[in-house]
Model the fold of this input.
Amino acid sequence: MDKEKIILTGDRPTGRLHIGHYVGSLRRRVELQNSGLYNKIYVFIADAQALTDNMDTPEKVRQNVIEVALDYLACGLDPAKSTLFIQSQIPELCELTFYYMDLVTVSRLQRNPTVKTEIQMRNFEASIPVGFFTYPISQAADITAFKATTVPVGEDQEPMLEQAREIVRRFNHIYGETLVEPEILLPDNAACLRLPGTDGKAKMSKSLGNCIYLSDDADTVAQKIKTMYTDPNHLRVQDPGQVEGNPVFTYLDAFCRPEHFGRYLPDYPNLDELKAHYRRGGLGDVKVKKFLTAIMQETLEPIRTRRKEFEQDIPAVYDMLKAGCEKAREAAAATLDDVRRAMKINYFDDAELIAEQARKFKGE
Ligand code: TRP
Done:
């Protein structure tokens, strides 16, 4: 078994990517890409998975493939270092999914907490599409086709990784050591695990309309922060305020670095002191929000600028994706060769098998 360190991760193209994606995984991916610690990095756009619950809006999925690709490039994913590709263009993933389906029971899928919540959210209770129900299996195929060792994702993907590991163990147990067991790599900062929406709701999500998108212009970002939910009991500046569950402070936890104080809020030495003042009373929301706005603009400006540049040459972005798909397909095909051999469905490249059967039928 090779000891290569291989990263694989991806996103469903159901909308532009937002700052929750950024702190939850995008920022980390770029760091990992540039760390030089990994032999291969695959980042893909999970269009086939997006279709499992958007089967009637294919145009939406198609439009968002390019949006997500632009967000990737804007954040600093570099096609020279990372292979960027589109899931549906790798037919080996379907093939692998089909074989993995033999290794997973219906009751195991029914216990998957992510699928359970999504069934509720999508009103699939009465009539869940088979493709949606089985997407954890297809996600295991995404991961294992590339022999990924490391999957940097948000904590909501934990059940998917567990399912993938189970499939790997079962496959290797039955068919012999073939697949690699992947590890999840979670964000290291609690605020980044699940960034709340600007309305204070637990999750930033397009359907809730509480997102700050990576591609929002500076005015939109400023406006969204201005109207952000804070502590509803912090009415006057002198009132004591609450930091816990206050998304303005959660965003600061996720984005603020020590040097931001020197640049934008020199009256305070660090975030702890700022929080302490807010808790005591005497610190207004406007001041905190202004600070957050400055930090967000500093963070997002280079991303917006790079996105604009890539937007000028969309055909080149498609060419880049196409090259990525070809490279990814080669890797997946190599795994499929191993899988077919292990599962004894490699009839034509097994000279030994043919010779042996020839002898058998001749009665030798
Ligand atoms: N389910 C992931 C999401 O909703 C996207 C995804 C599909 C993925 N296949 C994957 C992530 C494989 C990591 C590895 O964001």
